[in-house]
User: Fold these one by one.
Assistant:
Number 1:
Amino acid sequence: MTPGAATAVDSLALLPATEALAGFRSLEISPVEILEAQIQRIESHNGDRETGINAFTETLFDSARTQARAAADEYVRLAREGGEAPALLGLSVATKEKHGIAGRTLEQGLAAHRGRIAPVDHPVVERLNAAGGIIHARTTSPEFSCATTTHSPMWGITRNPWNTETSPGGSSGGSGAALAAGFTTLATASDIAGSTRIPAGFTGTVGYKAPYGRIPGFGALAADWYRGDGPMGRTVADTALLAAVISGRHQTDHGSWGGYGINPFAGGDVAGLHIGLSLTLGDYPVAPEIRENTLKVARALEAAGAVVVPVELPWTTARITETTFAHFGHILGPAMATETAGTESELAAYTARFIKDAAAAATRHTLVESLAMDHALQAELAAAMAGLDALLCPTSAVASLAADGDYLDGIATSEGHLGHYWEAHLTSPFNVANRCPVVSVPSGLSRDSVPTGVQIVGHPFDEAMVFRVAAAVEVLVPGPGFPQLKPSYSASSL
């Protein structure tokens, strides 16, 4: 479905957040109307855990409706009396299940966590509530967010609205699917090896990996310098709006930093900018159609006045995988093994494989050695980006992933077979270099009718630049629009 072909209900459900807020302020649109349009789409198209899009672990429609009515009343009051509304007042936000809501389950798809209840709101949730956002649904992820597809024994298979045989990516696959399907206006995500950008790429949406600590995390694993929480939206401006709300120092995460409420959106003028172009980041086997879509973006930037500079990096997918798993072998892998002890027989195959691979990498490299591996990649990226304002590269090397795929034997690509399917994505190097901000924006469609994406990589902490370039790409190379959804004939699992 393209925006021009949408029905009135569809148009409301798919309305960008910035436009919705303008409509709320002018009283031309009510938060109730948009929420009901999205609920209608969810009930018609989300489907069940086996054959449907299945984007959610649970829905919170009753409380959301109450909040929407209160938001509508508040806009009427503000129009009469004056004043400024909270930044997200009346906008629907689907939150990734790992972003705990006090008093509700926090299971992360694990049998070992079944029935676990969040004692407090995650900082991201706390800030959404304070900004007037309406959390109407919680989105699926793979077990412990450790895969780039989204399926689990607990929550079933989440499918890509563009092509339901394929995955929306992972680990924030439910968020990407919900945005693409018009089930929500905004969504939250997280990213430790590409878990925000990969779903954005595969669903034709926008995902932002902020510099480490810019968005506060929760719990001991928030200290892992590869990780981060983040925003997703259907436009660059929407994603920046959500980033502004959830970013900034928070008292519960001493590693968090920066001011709160600072919108990194900076327009889209790229004239005079020097933008590096790497189609493969070394030797990633990027599919020809993805290369062409990336080149299309580069040519458009050049036509808009940017200077596009080819960049060579001395990286291999095998080396990057070894580097990241050496890190995971000393942090995330042992944490997962501890969390799932006693329930090993109930784990998804990809989770067991991750724990095993991480443990093996830890026997090959000490933590100090893994730091040296990180430092080498960071230094090479810094050298490659010297004199540039940003770097452009694909988000994924492959056009799609199977919705139910485990990829225990690696993945076939256009140029051969990779031993580990994580090598199919060009995202994890920028978790190693995790002070670099990165935005993934759409670049076109693949022959699988699945969107493709490009990453805009900035120098450490330079958030405004990546949003500036991303905004230009969005204008110069319009996204794929919206998928045509099929009615769901299966009973919803929600």
Note: The chain is about 35% helix and 15% strand.
Number 2:
Amino acid sequence: MTLFLENARIIDPEGDTVTTGNVILDGGQIAAIGAASAPKGAQVIDCGGACLAPGIVDWGVKIGEPGERHKESFRSAGLAAAAGGVTTLIARPDTTPAIDTPEVLEFVTRRAAEASPVRIRHMAALTKGRDGREMTEIGFLLDAGAIAFTDATRVTTDPKVLSRALTYARSLGALVIGHPQEPGLSHGAAATSGKFASLRGIPAVHPMAERIGLDRDLGLIEMTGARYHADQITTARSLPALERAKANGLDVTAGVSIHHLTLNEFDVGDYRTFFKLTPPLRSEDDRLAMIEAVASGLIDVIGSFHTPADEESKRLPFEDAASGAVGLQTLLPAALRLIHAGQLTLPHLFRALALNPARRLGLPQGRMAEGAPADLVLFNPDTPFVLDRFTLASKSKNTPFDGTRMEGKVLATFVAGHQVYGATS
């Protein structure tokens, strides 16, 4: 069906523009932008001046299938994504078992296609079992559809194993995603070291653990010439090393979690476990430095790092509780805080949410241009609401934003020109 979206504020992250006009969707693509009238037989949708932007490409989402379907399934993650304006999920391989063979990858790819209303692409493990001892069959996994390779939050400690994997990945043009942390220093940590963590008696890690981990990875990237993406940069101490790597021509990009852009270490308060994340929340100075790095383009990607956890694993003493938070439905309204604070523009925000991750992963999504996939989100950035975690579509409800006043409501989400979500009120 041909759709005619009229009277929309069109966000173009590629052209860095916001214009008012109409958009035609046909054949799964954006057929025209700025058309004066609807084609014959088209379904007309009045956007009412709401914002129309490329659908979010959320990089680093954990889904519970296989192994932890009670925490999140492909269907529940897909429904949450659609309600949050996320049209493409880039799923992590830290499942049970890990996605480390073509057979497991083919299984999850088939299940995702059957169950999810949005697109799901999978990363595969870099080492077998994510154990850091032996690299996976990267070539076969690429053939089976792996979009990138990572051991997620489990850092490979043996630099020889990692260098071999990077060398092989480079020969195949594969993208490797690292988690910049020095594992010995960060093991068992639940907060960032400082006066606050000391007063609360929480086991903590120094911000230098991230810098040390990043320096090691960048040294190996310089040695091997591999393509590399740092999943989360969260401390100001890491930024000079990242800037040097880019200036020296290394094929390096970096991301940041929306939680590290909008929350800080004090949000932990009286041991609130929904704020326990990996890496832990940082200082306010670090948070502001991350926002500036996104604004300057030094950090390329913003993601939710959606990590579902059930009530039993969160209702524990802070240091024993599971790390992570769900974020598929809160990513956009949380990110809009940066717009309302005047720290980013809408085109720049969607460059980090959609265009940059799609480009880095070689996907055609993330663009507002004729011929691009018709994966779009229609939203009102100013609609206020108070988040009730029990209204989230995710099976797990571990959000740090429960009870928080937020702004920004998704009105409709389109995947390949089909509406997969529409707000009911």
Note: The chain has 13 helices and 17 strands.
